[in-house]
Structures are given as C-alpha cells and as structure tokens.
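Chapter summary example.
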Amino acid sequence: MTVRYCLSGLRILFGFLPVIVQVNLCIAADGLTQLQAGAYAQDITPTKFPISVNGSMVDQQATAAHDPLHARCIVLKNTKSAKVAEESLAIVVCDSCMIPRELLDLAKSKAFAKTGIPPNRILISATHAHSCPTVAAVFQSEPDKEYSDFLVEQISKGIEQANNQLEPARIGWGMVYQQSLLFNRRWLIKEDEKSESNPFGVKSDRVITNPGHSNPKVSKSVNLIDGDLSFISIQSLEGRPIALLANYSLQNIGGVPGDVVSADYFGEFSQRIARQMKATDVHPAFVGIMSNGASGDVNNVDFRQKVAPKREPFEQIEYAAELLTQSVFQACEKIEYVTEVPLRVREAEIVIGVRKPIADEISTAVKKLDGHAMPLDGGDLSLIYARETTLLAAYDTSVKLKLQAMRIGSIAIAACPCETFAETGLNIKLQSPVKPTFTISLANGYNGYLPPPEQHLAGGYETWRARSSYLAADAEPKIKATIIRLLREVNR
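The structure predicted for these 492 residues follows.
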C-alpha cells in the first residue's frame, strides 16, 4: 500500500502547484529481520530555583516550573547483525533553547558507554523554547553550570532507558501540510523608504524582523515558509503506541511569563498527542515528540493584521498544540506500518569561517561600553551588540560544525546545528534523493542563525553579528551542500 504526501511548502519557494508524490512503504530491506524500538521521556526540569532563562536580550530568572521539561528519546535497532554499531540509532529532542556541542558530545559519549550506540549515530537537538534554563551563553544570559551538568547526565540516562526498553516494533511515516500557524517574520522595507540602521550604526538593512503591526515602512513579508508537518509513528507489533516524532518549522510561540520555565508548544503537543492516541496509560509510557524544523525566520505572528490580537498566557501555545495534534493524528490514521526498515546514518564535520570583528570595531565597542555596568539596558541594542562584539573578539577564525543525515525506511532527517531558514529547509527537501525529508534544527550543537547569502545582504536581526549569528556569510551554501551529500550517501 502507498501513502500520499505533499511537498506543498515548495510551491511558496518555486511558484508551482503542490507536488503529490507516491511513496511505497513496503521498503525492500534485504537481510533485515525485526525492527526494535524503545522510547523514554527523561525529566530535565530544574531541581533548584531561581535559574537563568535565555531567549531574550536580557536575562530572566525563573522561580518555578509551569510544566515539566523533558529529553524525549527514541532508540531504533535492527536485529540483523550482532554489531550494534551498524544497526542502531538514537534521536533525542530536549526542551531547551539551545545546547552547545561540547555538552551534547559528552552526553553522547556517556550514552555510548551505557548502550553501545556510537556517538555518530545519535542525534540530539533542542526545541528552541525561549522559556528553558540557560545552558548556552547568549546575550546577557550565562549558563548555569550545575544545571548543564545535570542536563548531560539526564540525556544519557534517557537514551539508556529507551535502549533498555527495546522491543519488537513496527513503524510508519507521513506528512501533512499545515501552514496556518506560519508567518515569515522578515519584512521588506518599501523601495521609497530609507534603509534601517543596524545596532552598529550602519544604515544598510532592507529588512525589518518582527516589524510590528501597521508599520508604514514595510511592504510585504519575505513570505517563505515550510508548512510540511512530518511525523514518524512507532508501535509495538500489537499496535500499542511507543512513540511519535513530529517535525514542524515554527519557532517557539511564547506568551510564557518570565518567572517560570516551560516547554512551550513542543511540550504541550507531546501531552496532547498522547491523549489523542489514548496512550496516557500504556506501559512502557508513550513518548510524543515535536522537533524544530527550518524555522529561523518563521514565527506565528501575522503582521498583516492591523493590531495584535490579545492572548492570555499560554493561550496561543495551547491553540497551536491542539491544531498540530489533530493534524498529525488524522494523518497518522492513514499510514501503514512495516517491521523491516534500513537504519542508515552519515555524519560529517566541516569547517566554517567566523565573522570576527576587526580592531576598529572592537575599539569602538569598548568605548561604547565604558561606564555601563551589567545588566545592560535591553532596549539599547547598540550596547547589547557592543558587548557581543567584544566577546566575539575572542572567537577563533573558524569553527567546526557537525552535520548529520539519517534514513529510516524511506524517510530522511537532516540535522543542522543552526537556526535554519525556511528557504534552506525547502531547498534541502527539493534536492534530497529521499522523499520525504525533513530538517531538525539546533541539532548536535548550537552555531546561531544560518541566513542564506542574499538574506545576509538584506540585513535584519538574524544577520546582526553576535554569538547568536556569527558564521561567515557563505556558511549556508556549504552546510546545505554537505547535508545533501550526506542524504545521498544514506540513500545508497
């Protein structure tokens, strides 16, 4: 039997009607025997408060948890060979804003020691919820060392527990188009308007990110979104839900009070999909997962509206989670499951240049900061970015990025450690030989925004040089080309 899925997001990029593709779920898997799967949601909620929460220009201190945070883990293994290294993989999605590579490498090493799953076959990502504890230094938030150590241990424990729960399983996958929550937040300045100044005092920006409602300076949104809501569903042979991994290209939604931690819509989806699938009381516990796709320039705010609609705290999170839950559940009912699938993983490390400030820029930044104590005024972007300039001065001239591709049956995952733009995600899908393919961003490390070169030229928040955006302007084509190469390799 076949399942139909739609790459409708490509129509926005390339201007043609939705492409309907037939994907045969009965994959030829010569020599494979039984797929095994295990899943576990490891609690990573802070045990001590107050704690730093990043995601804005100023640090916030949370004093409680509104809802629990988790590292949601899936382990898949084929029993064809006694060599676990060749036949297993793990996927972990953490309720975290961003996680540095060094922490994730350590978590993978610990998990390898416990499970035998090699680090290069483990994918760990952050959701980019802005209401989670700080483990990566960005703007005025500094990592909480005790929580960072705790996070590493909990991730490795989660992978170990998922591996311990391996059982014969069946798997299916699909995709449904759900664009109603997505809006590109980068808006073009009208041709007859002057360019905007960036925080460094240069009037060159032809894009305003999050321009606000009824802004007379802007004409239209960049308008690129990826509306594909992809999912992989895993069940026991008897049909008991084990896990569901979904992927959507939407940033965090927010609307969370600054004094609490929350998993945002990613966590709310996980709870709701469990209830919808009547899997709240199964044993072992079902694990629902929402991962972050290519959302670096996309949020859920429609600036075409003249005024912002009023929302209570968590109201939009609940609305979005319910909409995505229903969309996935309805599509999930139409797929068929198989018990034999190839599990292929390829990983590569590439070197990317860093946009380091020059001596004059550093000197100007130091003078700008003279007399200003921390915390800096979050509304004065010139001060915020002056500090970022001084901190970037200590960076190396290049950085090593870890990229990854996974193929599970006839669906593929591209893993990128950046906040990937919708345009890049759409291009990866178009050029990937595996259909369908989706991108998990903020995976296996954190290397800031990844604007395509033409977006660098247009300027705007995502391009402003800081620890949140420091890769060279030619980084996106290099990363994209490497990911596509890896996707071709897992398709062989």
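To summarize the output: The two ends are 23 Å apart (CA to CA).
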